[in-house]
Amino acid sequence: MKEAGLKPHKQANRYSAKDDVKQNVTVKRVPAAQRSGRVGLIKRLRNYFALHFHVLTTTLSQLGRALMGNFMTAVVIGISLALPAALHVFLNKVESLGAAWQESAQISLFLQPNISAQNSTQLMNELKSWPEIDSLEYISPEQALEDFRQNSGLGDALAMLDDNPLPGVVVVSPTMAHQNPAAAESLLERLRQRPEVDLAQLDLEWVQRLHGLIGLAERVVLVLGGLLALAVLFVIGNTIRLAIQNRHDEIEVIKLIGGSDAFVRRPFLYNGMWFGLFGSLLAWLLVNILLMVLDGPVRQLAELYDSQFSLGLVDIKTTLLLLLLGPLLGLVGAWLVTGRRLRVIEPA
Amino acid sequence: MIHFSKVTKRYPNGFEALVDVSLHIKKAEMVFLTGHSGAGKSTLLKMIPLIERPSAGQVIIDDKHLGRVKRRQIPALRRDIGIIFQDSKLLNDRNVFDNVALPLLVSGEHHPREVGRRVRAALDKVGLLNRENDFPVYLSGGERQRVGIARAVVNRPKVLIADEPTGNLDPVLSREIMSLFEQFNQVGVTLLIASHDLELIGSLNKRIVSIRNGRMLADEGGRVEAAQTG
After folding, report:
1. Searching chain B, which residue's CA lies closest to the CA of residue A54?
2. What is the pTM of this model?
3. I need a labelling partner for A322 at 20 to 30 A (CA). Which of A64, A108, A249, A291 fits?
């Protein structure tokens, strides 16, 4: 349609150039018609980005002019954000540690003391066919006694016993799919029902307790984070409120020369966003410093448990969350205080 | 271009700043408004960019009834009017160039090349092209006022209003400012200038409107004698 519409114009164009003066009117109109829609939009977009870039740079250079005061505000915001961020990172690390242990969850079945060797072999064969179970290991009472003698240092005392008091033990390793707490628990319950089993115990039950504790701590971090985010909102709001007071005259002048409410408000919104951004950058830095300071002692502690665990740095996800949340809080904080406060400033 | 018909401004405390003022200014006219301080000159000027609204009567600027202009539409209205103040009202935290560029940014022109071209054209008109990087604190009173004028005309408004533009300047500088205004008037800009410097405005041979205690006193074609009676 468009091409079809353009073609006759182009022909008219060529035609008019040769002979007729009247046709010149059409010649002039063609580029105007082409310009109207698209170029207007491009110009508007260009203007829009130029405007925001201008506000972005001018607000930044204005912040630079009162460097010390603005830096202190950013530090307050940074510390407020660093606290929940640090707790969140710690919990993540501990959780990943707990998850690693969870993978080695095993169930120990202590068999009835009077059970025969034949019966226990039978139990073993049956359990091998269960789909939930990955592998089994049988520790006979004799082997258990031998292990105990070697490891406990009570060898002499054990020699005085005429009977072996230890039961046979089957160590059950669930498949990967059944290692989560709920599945392991239901497997444990089924094994407990077996008549040959005297006592069934999920090793690392404490891992589950740890999970419970982490869940609780996460909730605490969430609430604390929410409160501190609110504090950041108010700090930024108050800073912007003071900035509005300081620039009362400037706002008046801008309104006098025809600045709209949005035009007057925009620099303050950017101002809030900058505070949030610098605050979250500082928070990120603080948490990283904290992790580096604590990494040495944590590593030493982990080595005592034969673990290669170390804290490392703030992960990408938390970093992005922090760098997104900070500016957003700043924007919202500035938004809340600017609306009415700027509207009431009128030139007199 | 500018029409006041039976305009009255009464403040909440009962003070009447303007009483029943009617004034018609044609396109491309240059009119002086004179009277003692407190006579109502500023109040009258403030109604043109809707800084004040009349208690009664009507103001029409360029065929636009100001009574019908809503709050949201005021910024757009002000962009078409250049305003010059006694104290120039420059922003001290930015240089001359950025001060003059402000009305362009406000009205949505952000392309650096276009902004630069128009700001320099305005600065050239007031003879301050070489001061674009200076901050207002380093300028003399006359220079500051000229920057204020450049800012008022950078958007090429049809109407220019000035409230005591030479109030803080010595006679020589005042003359310079007035001849600038005459130049704008020659290219078709409508000007309304409040001033109590009768000697200066009398010598310019323009229309002079005098008001006293909020009432129109005289509307003369620009003779020294007529102005002095006001």
Report:
1. B110
2. 0.71
3. A64
